[in-house]
Write a structure and sequence with these properties.
It is a single chain. The protein is α+β, with helices and mostly antiparallel strands. The protein is 28% helix and 25% strand. The chain has 18 helices and 27 strands. The strands form seven sheets. A seven-stranded mixed beta sheet has the order 8-7-18-19-20-17-21. β19 and β20 form a beta hairpin. The two termini are 38 Å apart. Bound molecules: iron/sulfur cluster. Iron/sulfur cluster binds at residues 511, 535-537, 539, 560-566, 577.
Length: 591
């Protein structure tokens, strides 16, 4: 353990001077640090532990030649107040990866909720439901597991602790640490106890530097460190831009017998327009609980779209409303999904670092599934790290084997044939459905002959209000007339209450809006301040400044559910989401 000194600069606005204090910042040396306790990293850490034991045993028994690794220090840092606090998914899990990780996962107590017994695919018009006579093969889930991913991660976190892995909840990773050659050497965790003006409070505790031979970033969709890393090391060079969707979800408790346990419904159509990627789900869980939600592509064109309002509208459809009648909403959450798939995956390695799970776009958008691919990516990262530890080489020369392992695994077999799926939807629903059918027949060739569909980043697709008049006319008042009756449909503030969000209000905002002048001048004219609509937690508000008479941006950061939509969808790319003080954010227990 080392200590080193750092300088904290803060500004006292009244007197306009800066002062500095010396911070004694602890340095802790570990072997491997995982950032984010999601399914990818939890599986990676467990697999790393068991693969090292297996490697050493094979050497002991003379079956394998090489160097033993022995005990190593593994750490997992997690910004949530407990493992699972910030984990949100539908979720229907394909058990392929967890079976490889832990063949007896059920006997060991993995908290799956129920087994899928029935699939349905519905096309929704404004008032009608058309039940597809045949469920498209990618949406067949019979035999898979409906579960709360938050619960599963909490359980995997316990398994990690039992295996001797250090799990640090309430430790947000604030920045990547590099050496002079841009090799990643660990991460710095966020400081605690800074007031909203940036001054240290009596409970001030500096973040620590966790130094590691290998750092694994598995922060989920639009990871804040992954974003820094990709920009600094050019990991997206030669790749298609990452594209995202947002899923808005509620858990409902229904009257007994209303919706069958084990039934999985996926919908297409209402309320999305045909140019917007979107669809809904209803999953029947145990004890008359249903998971219900709606996904909207964050590459929508119409700046008036509000993904939370889309979900509320979805619930008013007669086919959905009759399911919910007499029920009660018990939990709410929202999260982005890295939807682009194979072409949008960054370079997965650099000196000292690997990227896993949603941070690296491992989700299969066609199947709307990413837990199994995230876990498998983590396991392949773990196997790569075993090789790096054995040869004591943590440079790209050894870590590149991760990329090779991914391309030789079933991840490639699953993601490569659907590589053009999301790109097709950027051209509209009807052509995408034909295009996807041809892709299905040709193992992924767009329109049956083109190797690659081009993807456009969502913020570049958003049209200005002047250009989007067509949309407003088509859609009429669809965004202003959502009926928030507080029984079946809820406004954002009511929903946020059900996300269990908490942040200490006396801390700097973790939403860095780099130029608020743009919000008050250009954005109001050009896009009508879409942050007020795309944020599912009513964080952004344009409020009249009585002094100037103009509307200015107010950021209610304490509402934030950490979905990252603003960082992704802002058309000027001036919102930078950074980690708040550890433990702050939603409480998705059971989601
Ligand atoms: Fe999501 Fe940004 Fe709103 Fe937070 S502020 S809930 S990250 S859109």
């Amino acid at each position: 353990m080392f200590r080193h000194f750092d300088i904290l600069f803060t500004t006292e606005s009244l007197f306009i001077y800066s002062y500095k204090i010396m911070i004694e910042r602890e340095q802790i040396e570990m072997d491997v640090v995982f950032v984010g306790a999601g399914p990818a990293n939890l599986a990676a850490a467990l697999h790393l532990k068991s693969e090292i034991a297996r490697h050493d045993e094979l050497i002991d028994r003379g079956i394998k030649h090489g160097r033993k690794i022995g005990e190593i220090e593994i750490g997992i840092v997690e910004k949530g107040s407990f493992v699972g606090a910030h984990i949100l998914s539908g979720a229907v899990m394909d058990p392929k990866a967890i079976r490889e990780l832990m063949p007896d996962f059920l006997e060991q107590g993995c908290p799956v909720d129920t087994v899928v017994t029935e699939d349905a695919a519905w096309y929704l018009t404004e008032n009608r439901k058309i039940n597809a006579p045949i469920v498209p093969p990618p949406l067949k889930n019979k035999g898979k597991y409906i579960l709360s991913l938050s619960k599963m991660c909490e359980w995997l976190g316990e398994k990690c602790e039992e295996a001797g892995i250090n799990v640090f909840p309430e430790f947000p990773a604030a920045e990547v640490l590099y050496d002079e050659n841009d090799r990643v050497i660990g991460i710095r965790t966020g400081d605690k106890g800074i007031d909203k003006e940036g001054r240290p409070k009596p409970n001030f505790e500096p973040g620590v530097d966790l130094l590691a031979k290998v750092t694994v970033l598995g922060e989920g969709s639009r990871g804040s460190l992954a974003k820094q890393l990709m920009a600094r090391l050019g990991l997206m060079e030669g790749k298609e831009p990452q594209v995202f969707s947002i899923g808005v979800k509620e858990l409902w408790e229904l009257p007994a017998g209303r919706f069958p346990e084990g039934k999985v419904v996926h919908t297409l159509g209402f309320p999305s327009d045909t140019q917007t990627y979107g669809g809904g789900w209803v999953y029947g869980m145990k004890d008359n609980i249903v998971s219900i939600g709606y996904v909207t592509g964050l590459d929508y064109v119409d700046p008036n779209i509000d993904p939370h309002a889309e979900f509320q509208k979805f619930k008013t459809h007669p086919a959905i409303a009759e399911i919910l009648e007499g029920g009660k909403m018990i939990k709410y959450g929202a999260k982005t999904i890295n939807a682009g798939g194979y072409w949008t995956m960054p370079k997965l390695f650099a000196d000292g670092v690997l990227l896993v799970g949603d941070s690296a776009s491992f989700l299969n958008g066609q199947r709307i599934k990413g837990i199994h691919t995230a876990m498998k990516s983590g396991m392949l990262a773990a196997e790569t790290i075993v090789g790096a530890l054995e040869h004591e080489d943590f440079t790209s020369k050894t870590l590149r084997h991760y990329d090779e392992k991914v391309n030789l695994s079933w991840i490639y077999d699953e993601l490569h044939p659907v590589r053009n799926f999301h790109g097709a939807f950027q051209k509209g629903r009807w052509s995408a459905l034909i295009n996807s059918g041809l892709q299905f027949l040709t193992k992924g060739l767009a329109w049956g002959f083109m190797p690659k569909e081009h993807h456009v980043a969502g913020h570049e697709r958003m049209a200005k209000l002047t250009e989007s008049g067509k949309w407003q006319t088509e859609n009429g008042s669809r965004y202003s007339n959502v009926p928030f009756d507080k029984e079946y449909t809820f406004d954002k503030v009511t929903d946020v209450f059900h996300a269990g969000v908490s942040h200490d209000e006396d801390q700097p905002s973790h939403l860095h809006v780099l130029d608020t002048e743009i919000c008050a001048t250009r954005c109001v004219e050009e896009y009508g301040n879409p942050c007020q609509r795309f944020c599912p937690a009513a964080v952004y508000e344009m409020e009249e400044n009585p002094g100037t008479g103009r509307k200015e941006l107010k950021v209610n950061f304490s509402n934030c559910v950490h979905c990252k939509t603003c960082d992704i969808a802002d058309p000027y790319q001036i919102i930078n989401w950074v980690t708040p003080e550890g433990g702050g954010g939603p409480n998705y227990k059971g989601m």
